[in-house]
Amino acid sequence: MCVESFERFNGRRSGEGKAVAILSHGFGTDQTAWNALRPWFEARYDVISFDLAGCGPQGAQTYDFERHGSLFGYADDLLDILDELDVHNCTYVGHSMSGMIGAAAAVARPELFERLVIIGASPRYLDDEGYTGGFKPQDLEQLFESMRANYQAWIAGFAPMVVGVEDSAVVADFSNTLFQMRPDIALNTSRTIFTSDLRSLAARVSTPVHLIQTAHDVAVPVAVGHWLANAIDGATLDVIDASGHLPHMTAPDDVMRILEQRLAGPTR
Known about the structure:
- This protein is an alpha/beta fold.
- The chain is built from 13 helices and seven strands.
- The protein has helices at 5-8, 38-42, 59-62, 71-84, 97-108, 137-149, 151-163, 168-180, 183-194, 199-202, 222-231, 247-250, 252-262; strands spanning 12-14, 20-24, 46-49, 90-95, 113-119, 209-216, 236-243.
- A seven-stranded mixed beta sheet has the order 1-3-2-4-5-6-7, with helices on both faces.
- Strand 2 (20-24), helix 2 and strand 3 form a beta-alpha-beta unit.
- Helix 6 runs antiparallel to helix 9 (183-194).
């Protein structure tokens, strides 16, 4: 890339620790999604965050329809940032699409990752024989058509449904970052996410993985979390007794308690 990756993706670095933690957000948000958890990480880690391609104030400039037509393109962005900053053995925390982006990057370059914390991620959103992804093809076509027809109206219904709890501040924040995305980029990103199938990747992850999920998530059924926990050797799964797809924003105290437990000891 002609511009340094960390700067290009609006990178931010802060914190007091020596060990590095990477915070990578999910679809429709930007790095401000970590605001509630960032102080916890900053007290313990050298914290690195950035905006995914297509997201944040520079989203339209960072998105490439060909490169980011696959989650592996985002994984390449992540690896570019880690190489540029000379980061090794990091703790990677990824929400939703960033969970599988981190898994893909860790399979390609395992030496860069000490462990992965994956929050509300899915390797495949479509149902399949013997697999519950939560969506049928007609569900996705309806989703894409709604986005195409009236992006603003779609956000008005999508944001509170995904937040999943009565939290007007989080709904407003999520709506604002969705509005910040250019509609054609948002539509293409959603197609990339919802039509992906990275199940074959799971068995190849050798990095220790901690999975976190809510018990009721409209985007990712709890069955997906159990599938990933079974597919990834040695993975742990913590299910929060809560609703919504954004627990790092709506239930940060619950997430912090899990982080305290899972990140305090050795990776294995």
